[in-house]
Amino acid sequence: MPSEKSVYEPSAHASKGAYVTSLPQYQQMYRRSVDDPEGFWGEIARHFHWETPADPARFFRYNFDVAKGPIFTKWMDGATTNVSYNLLDRNVRNGHGDKVAFYWEGNHPDDYSRLTYRKLLEEVCRLANVLKSRGVQKGDRVAVYMPMILEAVVTLLACARIGAVHSLVFAGFSADSFAERIVDCGARVLVTADGAWRGDKLIALKSICDQAMSKCAADGHNVETCLVIGHLGRVTSPKGASQRHKTPMTVGRDIWWHDAVPQASSSCYPEWVRAEDPLFMLYTSGSTGKPKGVLHTTAGYLLYAATTFKYVFDYRPDDVYWCTADVGWITGHTYVVYGPLANAATSVLFEGTPFYPDHGRFWSVVEKYRVTQFYTAPTAIRALMKFDERLVKRHDLTSLRVLGSVGEPINPEAWLWYYRVVGGERCSIVDTFWQTETGGHVLTPLPGATPMKPGAAGFPFFGVEPVLLDEGGKEIIGEGEGYLVFPRPWPGLMRTLFGNHDRYELTYFTKFPGYYCTGDGAKRDADGFLWVTGRVDDMLNVSGHLMSTAEVESVLTEHRGVAEAAVVAKPHPVKGECLYCFVTVTEDGVFDERLLRELKQHVRERIGPFAQPDVIQNAPALPKTRSGKIMRRILRKVAVNDRDVGDVSTLADGTVVEQLFAMRPPDAAA
Ligand code: PRX
């Protein structure tokens, strides 16, 4: 197994012709980006269209210190532009009209299509006109609940075209979660599809939206328009599945896409918006349990998405890039939609799963489109490395040059398998660390330039200054481990939490005044490589899905039979982490199979299937301090059956610990 000292140099295959071909070149560009941010980003901005130019005196301003006043970040103040114009019209004008923007590959291998830049522009304009006709105006939020289809991209860009703010919610979230987010952002228009297949499973998206809209109405919020794409009727159903699916439509509110969009005009003058006007919001879990509406704005996000995409994937004009992330996550926003289109890239948009119709699907898609950059999550790699290598090797993967990883730490075993089996030892691996909040990559290798260590995110991207702090807020220089924070913003950092700037300041800027606090820990090794060690707060990362322990605990305690619940993360060989829940039943409650089933179902319904607990343990009592605080440290030890629990003298009742070990359920494994 590789150690911290194992270093892999970028191969000649990845370096030849790259934008950045050596470590000194990266270091020089990096220095310039932090010493002269205005000059560095100003040069990049020249490639884009600004209806009104930025005021050079106000190109970059910020305050990260709560003691000095409100926290803010502003890039390119005074400029006006339109992101859809930069992604579409500008590329069409530059001769890319007939270039394929997306190859769409459906869930079923028989379903595929493509869309050029010119056609994408026309579709975006048509939908923009429909949205306008339904009363959507600049600044209004539009809720989106979509599978991985071309119309998802069209919808996001149609919002951008008219200055509306898209709020896309991952279509794996339950109706309850979706409703909570619709009410929070106040969207009156919702765009969805009738349904979609994931492998051989049908997801009835419109029915989930119907439930969500009724819940919104019960909360006093009415969705006035629901636009529905008829997707199921045009795709191949899995073998043996019933062909019929009836989608209920509510007259006056629900409209079929095919009844409105094709008839609308294919031209729509872009709404010029200010540099700091919002582009989109995207919810992420908060440690208190209530989701946070992370808000990204226009100019800075565009510059950052475009620049990280270009350098981190080393995208060149004839490449075919593929990011497998769902558009419902920030990775889908920045590296399926905005980053690639800003670079006139050709991408694959994949609706399916790595396991359908067989475990070789990823590799057959790479071969089919001659993919050059492939970007996925460690959880997918770990799931696939369990199968016979021949499933990979029977495909021609020689087109690959860059392999990306995102969402959670990648363990060295998975890194090596990716490098050796998928990359044939010819490709560079970019382990990209970033967050919904950061807008784009912040720590990452550059494929032609920086050496790699399996499991290390490496070095900061241009304009990003990572700092490690100890518990007392003192900076750790050189080798060491601490809180990962940033003293200055880069263009793509979020600007606020929608409708709650106080929570923004409290969550990210209060623990260490003067710094943006990621919530992650990191260590710097003797060679200066950064290794992200994981969350330092009560957040869990299950298959790259971030969620809070509080969120799951509050859902568990909603059940009548549950008096108290505590949730911790347990390491999992494929998911990275899984949920281990301790439940104390009420006096008249019974801990039995039925309760287990109901609790799992309840979590699926209230949050989504991805949040289903792996283990639920009966806990007659929880380990608490005398002041009543649950000692999660001990619960984490019980979860992994490690009796080395350390000091328990502060516990109100020490016998609880032994009881919990004794009551570990058989399915909990070690
Ligand atoms: O803990 C870090 C982990 O995922 C968190 C961010 O999750 P989210 O906002 O959902 O965005 C995921 C996609 C960017 C981080 O705080 N994380 C993400 N990428 C990595 C990572 N941890 C280690 N290494 C990574 N490459």
Biggest sheet: strand arrangement: 12-11-8-6-7-14-15-23
Helix tally equals 20
The helix-and-strand class reads alpha/beta
Rg over CA atoms, rounded to whole Å, is 25 Å
Percent helix range? 25-40%
Beginning-to-end CA distance, first to last residue? 22 Å
Biggest sheet layout: 8 strands, mixed
> What is the number of E strands?
30
- In oligomeric terms, what are we looking at? single chain
**What overall geometry do the principal axes of the alpha carbons give?**
globular
| Low confidence ranges | none
> What number is the mean pLDDT?
95
What is the strand content? 15-25%
Q: Which ligands accompany this protein?
A: adenosine-5'-monophosphate-propyl ester
Give the SSE map.
Elements: H1 12-15, H2 23-35, H3 37-45, E1 60-63, E2 72-75, E3 80-81, H4 83-96, E4 100-105, E5 112-116, H5 117-133, E6 141-145, H6 150-161, E7 165-168, H7 175-185, E8 189-193, E9 196-198, E10 201-203, H8 205-218, E11 225-229, E12 254-256, H9 257-260, E13 273-274, E14 278-284, E15 292-297, H10 299-312, E16 320-323, H11 330-342, E17 346-350, H12 361-369, E18 373-376, H13 378-384, H14 390-393, E19 402-406, H15 412-422, E20 428-432, E21 467-469, E22 480-486, E23 496-497, H16 501-509, E24 516-524, E25 530-535, E26 539-542, E27 545-548, H17 549-556, E28 562-572, E29 576-585, H18 593-606, E30 615-618, H19 632-639, H20 655-662
Helix pairs in contact: 2-3, 4-5, 5-6, 7-8, 10-11
The structure holds adenosine-5'-monophosphate-propyl ester.
The site of adenosine-5'-monophosphate-propyl ester has 22 residues, from α11, β20, β24 and β25.
